[in-house]
Amino acid sequence: MRRLLVIPLMVGFACVLAGAYGIVHNQISFTIGPDYFYALKFPQFRIPDLLQSRVGAAYVGWQASWWMGLVIGIPIAVMSLGIPSSAQTRRVFLRAAMLVVAITFALGLVSLAFDPPMDHIPVPTAAKDPIGYGRAAMLHDTSYLGGMIGLVIGLIYTGAKVRAARRNALKPQSEGR
Q: d(Cα 88, Cα 80) in Å, to the nearest integer?
């Protein structure tokens, strides 16, 4: 029962990690396509004129991504509780969370190697640099997709660690019989 109390801590950590990812991600996006923020995100998040800069982009990044920590953190945290050792549970959760972030970041960077599909990206008329806008939009969409792919891989990793830990926990008992 006490082990269940660690779930909110792990999920809280995942939310902070996801929010921090959003802040860093939006600094990259703002560099690539500031019009994405000026024409879409700043109005969408009601960012005051005074903060319509990298500071506002960081705020938008936090607001747009912290909740992904819930989506990704809850299933991985619950699955990791299948590991008998509390210390190993925390270690596996931390590694799985970092794996998700690394996959999300890597897929986002890979998306920048391609031209944005401008026929499928609705560019507001206020955007002065449609290609920069398109690149930033593609990076954002790829990051959400990367988060979902990362979640699947994180769950596979966690499941493998749970199975291995359970097998190792049973070995001494069966060897003594």
A: 9
- Is the Cβ–Cβ distance between 80 and 111 less than 8 Å? no
The interaxial angle of helices 86-111 and 68-80, nearest 10 deg, is 140
Residue with tokens 């703002």: 30
Write the CA distances from 30 to 18, 46, 103, 148, integer angstroms: 18, 17, 21, 23
Tokens of 73: 């953190």
- Tens digit of pLDDT for each residue in 51-74? 999 999 999 999 999 999 999 999
Question: Rounded distance, CA 169 to CA 86, Å?
Answer: 13
pTM of the model: 0.91
Give the single-character DSSP code of 46. Answer: T
**DSSP tally for the chain: helices H, then strands E:** 7, 0
DSSP string, 73-88: HHHHHHHHTTSS-HHH
Angstrom distance (rounded) from CA 77 to CA 70: 10
Convert the pLDDT of each residue in 1-12 to its tens digit: 688 889 999 999
Query: What length does the chain have?
Result: 177
The rounded distance, in Å, linking the Cα atoms of 82 and 171 is: 16
